[in-house]
Amino acid sequence: VTLDVDAHLVESTKRGARYTYAGFRGYQPLLVCCAETCMIMADEFRDGNVPASQKIRELVDVAYGRLPYRPDGWKIQVRSDSAAYEYQNLEHWDAQGWRFAVSADMSVQLRQEIAELPETAWNLWKVENNDVMREWAEVPYVPSRTNEKKDTKPYRYVAIRIRRTQGEFFSDGNTVKHFAIVSNDWETNGQELLEWHRGKAGSIEQVHRVLKDELGAGVYPSGKVGADAGWLRL
Q1: How far apart are the first and last CA of the chain?
Q2: Are strands 77-80 and 2-7 parallel, antiparallel or unpaired?
Q3: What is the pTM of this model?
Q4: Which of 6, 25, 115, 160 could pair with 204 in a Cys bridge, judged by C-beta atoms 3.0 to 4.6 Å apart?
């Protein structure tokens, strides 16, 4: 079972709506869905100013607790964007033996490690139709961890480099864009791991789209939080 966790923004002009990180007022519900079925396993209606990272592992635990009983248990995988990039979350999932892949925040230290990679470290992923080249590389990045022990196994960082084949600039004025994910999976090929992580675009992000565009979760009927939470649940 793959548990994908993500929040979505809903703009609102209601008096009680709070400002979101995007600059408009609204709400920011957090959802966990089962990627294999696109079934929503847990949800929490939230004000727009509540960070998506808040109590994210608790909601994933709620989703896990709703799985039906199996005598031999479940093999769990977790995917998320950088909202889950906190070591308490990663260590919690790793301690339970759950495989995870999470978008990593591009800290100064991580960005420097990526920038110092030799050209031979980069592997071609694909060239897209708009002449954008996507590449990946393993990053020898080992930040300190809470309660780290001598035999603590480091997490794996895989970087993504995006550039135009002709060296042209992107709209933000840069010629290269870098991203990265962190995982406790050291066995899967780097490109396959990245593609698996991107798979949440076809699950939780599609759930957001259907909820907002087809099922009425793009407009909330009340100024009362409890009523709006009920609307989302319905």
Answers
A1: 24
A2: parallel
A3: 0.89
A4: 6
Average pLDDT score, the chain:
90
Bridge partners of residue 126, in order along the sequence: 134
Chain position carrying tokens 């992000």:
205
Query: Got the DSSP string for 200-230?
Result: GGGTHHHHHHHHHHTSSTTS---SSHHHHHH
- The fraction of the chain above a pLDDT of 90, given in percent, is 71
The token pair that represents 12 in the structure block: 């609102």
Could you give the CA distance from residue 76 to residue 3 in angstroms, rounded to a whole number?
7
The encoded tokens of residue 76 equal 């769990």
The residues with which 38 forms a beta bridge, in sequence order, are none
Specify the pairing of strand 99-103 against strand 77-80. parallel
**Distances in Å between the alpha carbon of 84 and those of 21, 41, 57, 93, 171?**
16, 17, 8, 11, 28
- Distance from C-alpha of 185 to C-alpha of 189, rounded to nearest angstrom: 9
- Inter-CA distances, 197 with 103, 222, 233, Å: 9, 36, 27
Q: Measured between alpha carbons, how far is 225 from 107 in angstroms, rounded to an integer?
A: 35
pLDDT tens figures, 66-114: 999 999 999 999 999 999 999 999 999 999 999 999 999 999 999 999 9
pLDDT reading at 149 higher than 60: no
Q: In 10 A of CB 157, how many CB atoms? A: 20
CB neighbours of 40 closer than 8 A, spacing ≥ 6?
Answer: 31, 32, 33, 207
